[in-house]
Design a protein that fits this description.
By secondary structure, this protein is of the alpha/beta class. Strands 14-13-12-15-16-17-18-19 form an eight-stranded mixed β-sheet, sandwiched between helices. Strands 1-2-3-4-6-9 form a six-stranded mixed β-sheet, with helices on both faces. A three-stranded mixed β-sheet has the order 5-7-8. Helix 5 packs antiparallel against helix 9, helix 11 crosses helix 25 and helix 12 crosses helix 13. The two termini are about 55 Å apart.
């Protein structure tokens, strides 16, 4: 039963479907039945809709999208239609999250009142969808087509203050939003359905400019085959809001939504959505629900690029952090990095001056290791050398309090060999952040041989606090991401040895959707770093010595303005790779000495070989238990290595290709 309360001529209806008040098909049926009863009650003149569980509603249940709509199913569209056609006044009393179908439900109401802590958004674009319960038609009528389209294309949540500025909300209150809404209802304001409003493009923009504005909008989003399918369909839906009556616009929205919900990009993005939900489930235990210790203070050893980024990540999450480094120059650079980052956020309007100062002050730089003694977690972020790291952990074992979590940020080294030098191997694990650590959303949690379940639970909880996608990895060379990238880079090198220019290899994989190709990525990481890792783990898999020769020539990548590519500060601020015939000649000469024949290679073969390298290694990691699930690997590659989300990650993509091939074979067999 839907919770209800009678307040004289006002009926209060509370959305209560834990944990997020999802507007599933089943819950929508209950809600519709409740509204029908209220509609027949002649003593009720107004209805206030609020939410339980600390929020209004997070929207539809994504599980409902996985199957065809069952016959006779009731959806949130039916609930909204009931509100739309009602003769009673409706007010949405919003507290906490009001997202997706929840916001669409509120848009059907006459008035929307929210608390200051509320967040409003239409995030459907992030699942390769568009708002499918009237959002594309009502929001443009309420705030204008241009503003509405921008809001929906971003897919992010807006604060109550920002929503008020946009015109989505009518009032923002500190607290007691339900009482404010009831008082508003009792004042008998006029009914004001959004559907009756006229859509404008934007203030000062004539209606005749509509076709031009639509054309420009289509140009500003990625092509349909590069992850932009939902964005183009969303623009089409908003165009309908401008040009068509509501009923026709809603019909077009529904048709476009149905196209998207069956599309490959949306299936891939929803796969990632569900894969992320599975991440904390380890050996049948949900680590976020298991016993754990909250991290309230942190330490970082090393004030380099990685250490500074990790410190900023802690500070941004409200965790005070001590950074220890004996190099005064490194500490000075780190201080500048920290202040520069927070001042940048002030300039962008993301932080106030006071907030930035508070966060910066929560980071303490020192050369006094004893200040780490009170930290709940200490992350080592020093040079990637096993003996250096073992020395750090010997020292931490003596200083850190007994229950402290000791984490290494190694990207390739054996966590057990690091844990073995301590008296508490059960409290040692890997926390592999990605550069820049304060921005990149991925965190690999590496379980050592002795790492306790309690330590894992604390690490997963910390990952959530830091707003990271935390993925568990077994303790093996390179863990998940870097082990796979090792094979990927090896295949790219093999292609170059066969005569394919590095620039062409990179272009093919960028055309697939990666932000950069394998050679540009190597240049960004540093060729000396790649060569050192290869030497430490048995040498390069390449058939030639091109990498070693480039390093010997001082061509270390972007940092020396030359690596596999050339760089020029006048071109893309020194970050844009420029094809270098000298490197192509180096590959050709080395390949000839190694007896490698040059051959014609198609773009399709380049793409397939690079992706197969990832998939084949990913399959081995699953067989070896290094990765728990294919979806874990997909999360690692999408959020850590730039694999295009609309392709779902390497394992999902390979499975889709296999399914498509099976379908083709089935069709041919029946032809």
């Amino acid at each position: 039963m839907i919770p209800q309360e009678r307040r004289d001529d006002v009926r209060l209806i509370t959305l209560d479907n834990p944990p997020v008040n999802a507007l599933s098909f089943a819950y929508s049926r209950e809600l519709l039945a409740t509204l029908e009863v209220v509609e027949r009650d002649g003593a009720v003149e107004a209805v206030v809709i609020s939410g339980a569980n600390g929020l209004f509603s997070a929207g539809a249940d994504v599980n409902d999208f996985q199957n065809e709509l069952p016959p006779g199913a009731v959806t949130i569209r039916d609930v909204i239609h009931a509100i739309e056609t009602s003769g009673k006044l409706y007010i949405a009393a919003i507290d906490g999250s009001c997202l997706g179908g929840g916001l669409e439900l509120s848009l059907a109401c006459d008035y929307r009142i929210a608390t200051t802590r509320s967040k409003l958004g239409l995030p459907e674009i992030r699942l390769g969808l568009l708002p499918g319960a009237g959002g594309t038609q009502r929001l443009p009528r309420l705030i204008g087509a241009r503003a509405g389209l921008e809001f929906m294309l971003k897919g992010s949540s807006a604060s109550a203050e920002r929503a008020m500025e946009l015109g989505i909300l009518d009032e923002v209150v500190e607290d007691n939003v339900v009482e404010h809404a009831v008082a508003k209802a009792r004042s008998h304001p006029p009914k004001r359905r959004v559907s009756a409003m006229q859509t404008s493009i934007a203030p000062g923009v004539p209606e005749q400019a509509g076709p031009y504005v639509v054309a420009q909008a289509h140009k500003m989003v990625p092509p349909e085959d590069r992850g932009g399918l939902a964005a183009h369909k969303l623009i089409d839906a908003v165009q309908a809001a401008v040009e068509l009556p509501l009923a026709y616009g809603l019909a077009r929205e529904a048709r476009l939504f149905d196209q998207l919900v069956r599309s490959e990009p949306s299936l891939a993005l929803r796969h990632l959505f569900f894969a992320e939900r599975e991440l904390p489930k380890v050996d049948g235990v949900d680590m976020l629900r298991a016993a754990h210790e909250d991290v309230k203070s942190a330490g970082v050893v090393g004030a380099g690029t990685m250490g500074s980024g990790i410190a900023i990540a802690f500070a941004q999450s409200g965790i005070p952090v001590v950074v220890v480094d004996n190099d005064d120059a490194a500490v000075d650079r780190a201080r500048q990095t920290v202040m520069g980052m927070f001042m940048y956020q002030v300039q962008k309007g993301r932080l106030t001056q006071e907030e930035a100062w508070k966060r910066a002050q929560s980071i303490t730089f020192t050369d006094d290791w004893s200040l780490l003694s009170g930290a709940d977690v200490v992350v080592e972020a020093v040079f990637e050398d096993l003996e250096v790291k073992r020395d750090v952990f010997r020292r931490l074992d003596e200083i850190a309090k007994p229950g402290a979590l000791l984490a290494t940020n190694t990207s390739t080294l054996d966590v057990d060999k690091i844990a073995d030098v301590t008296k508490r191997p059960d409290r040692v694990l890997g926390l592999h952040f990605f550069v820049p650590a304060n921005i990149m959303p991925l965190l690999e949690i590496v379980r050592g041989r002795a790492t306790s379940e309690e330590s894992l639970a604390t690490a997963f909880r910390l990952g959530k606090t830091l707003r990271k996608k935390a993925v568990l990895s077994g303790n093996a060379f390179g863990f998940i991401g870097n082990r796979m990238i090792f094979d990927y880079l090896g295949e790219a090198t093999a292609l170059a040895e066969e005569g394919v220019p590095p620039a062409r290899i990179d272009a093919v994989i960028r055309d697939f959707g990666f932000p950069m190709g394998p050679f540009a990525m190597s240049d960004l990481s540093g060729l000396d770093v790649g060569a050192a890792i290869a030497r430490a783990h048995g040498g390069s898999v390449a058939r030639t010595d091109v990498l070693e020769r480039l390093v010997a020539m001082g061509r270390l990548g972007q940092k020396t303005m030359a690596g596999y590519f050339k760089y020029d500060k006048a071109v893309g601020k020194g970050r844009e790779p420029i094809a270098d015939p000298e490197v192509e000649a180096l590959f050709a000469e080395a390949a000839q000495r190694a007896g490698i024949a040059r051959r014609d290679v198609s773009d399709a073969e380049i793409r397939e070989r690079l992706l197969d390298a990832l998939v084949n290694r990913g399959t081995h990691l699953l067989e070896e238990g290094v990765a728990l699930r294919p979806g874990d690997i997909d999360i690692v590659y999408v959020y850590g290595y730039g694999f295009p989300p609309h392709h779902g990650g390497p394992m999902w993509y390979a499975a889709q290709m296999q399914r498509d091939e099976s379908k083709r074979e089935g069709v041919l067999a029946h032809a």
